[in-house]
Amino acid sequence: EHSKPLQGKNVLITAGPTREPVDPVRYFTNYSSGKMGYAIAKAAVALGANVTLVSGPTALTPPPGVTFLPVESTAEMLEAVLTRYDNQDVVVKAAAVADYKPKRVLSQKMKKKQDEWTVELEKTTDILAELGKRKQHQLLVGFAAETQDVEHYAKDKLERKNLDMIVANNVAQEGSGFSVDTNEIIIYKKDGSKQAFPLLAKEKVAYEILEVAMDLMGR
Ligand code: PMT
């Protein structure tokens, strides 16, 4: 059907930040608002897909029609995504996943005694890399949030994580990236081609991303 090109397709989108606890009252996180991922989820619903939205904590209301799975930590996001991966046709990883987490989570609140407090961090699991390793029939779409050498790092992630396409955004550029309502992206595909877009509303960016994905799916 022409107006619903994603009819019958299962699309899973991750959005928002993850949150890594230090003690019962503190955590590490980042500036992701969830706007980019929620816009993709909304667009995918409008294009007819069965949409699962796995989201870290945000202030947003999930778009109508999605299966909504709220998570907090990277480990919870990993588990939510992996258990549903086999059924998906498309996975879009717009979430800003924490790269590091505290090595130890304190069971009691850290008291304010010393002048300094060192928290040791260790790497989290790279969810996207795991998905790349286990990829079968799925179309895997990653994001790259960069502040320099965007093309170099985006292409490196595309290859290393076994993606079909990667959406690069320069998050140091005004009006682009975290929290704002607009984004300026360049999409790199695994065939080596790239497509650059002007600064657009995240709603519009969402459609552009899905257009490229549908093109790769032959829809
Ligand atoms: O939420 P908004 O405020 O609207 O902002 C949107 C955004 C800037 C967060 C979004 O456009 C974006 O760039 N998302 C990816 C952010 C990110 O974590 O980029 P990265 O270059 O660090 O990671 C590369 C890819 O690996 C991402 O698809 C990320 O989801 C994934 N990843 C990273 C680390 C990890 N442990 N697991 C992952 O799956």
From TrEMBL:
Keyword Isomerase: no
Cofactor: FMN; Mg(2+)
Keywords: Decarboxylase, Flavoprotein, FMN, Ligase, Lyase, Magnesium, Metal-binding, Multifunctional enzyme
EC annotation from Swiss-Prot or TrEMBL: 4.1.1.36, 6.3.2.5
A GO MF term: metal ion binding
Pathway stated in the Swiss-Prot or TrEMBL entry: Cofactor biosynthesis; coenzyme A biosynthesis; CoA from (R)-pantothenate: step 3/5; Cofactor biosynthesis; coenzyme A biosynthesis; CoA from (R)-pantothenate: step 2/5
Coiled-coil ranges from the UniProt annotation: none
DNA/pantothenate metabolism flavoprotein C-terminal domain boundaries: 6-213
Co-factor binding details: Binds 1 FMN per subunit.
Catalytic activity: N-[(R)-4-phosphopantothenoyl]-L-cysteine + H(+) = (R)-4'-phosphopantetheine + CO2; (R)-4'-phosphopantothenate + L-cysteine + CTP = N-[(R)-4-phosphopantothenoyl]-L-cysteine + CMP + diphosphate + H(+)
GO biological process: coenzyme A biosynthetic process; pantothenate catabolic process
Amino acids binding CTP: D99, K109, F143, K157, K161
Keyword Magnesium set for record: yes
Region annotated Phosphopantothenate--cysteine ligase, chain positions: 11-219
GO CC terms of this entry: phosphopantothenoylcysteine decarboxylase complex
Function recorded in the entry: Catalyzes two sequential steps in the biosynthesis of coenzyme A. In the first step cysteine is conjugated to 4'-phosphopantothenate to form 4-phosphopantothenoylcysteine. In the second step the latter compound is decarboxylated to form 4'-phosphopantotheine. Catalyzes two steps in the biosynthesis of coenzyme A. In the first step cysteine is conjugated to 4'-phosphopantothenate to form 4-phosphopantothenoylcysteine, in the latter compound is decarboxylated to form 4'-phosphopantotheine.
Family recorded in the similarity comment: In the N-terminal section; belongs to the HFCD (homo-oligomeric flavin containing Cys decarboxylase) superfamily. In the C-terminal section; belongs to the PPC synthetase family.
Protein name: Coenzyme A biosynthesis bifunctional protein CoaBC
Record organism: Fictibacillus macauensis ZFHKF-1
Gene name, Swiss-Prot/TrEMBL: coaBC
Whole-protein residues included: 184 to 402 of 402
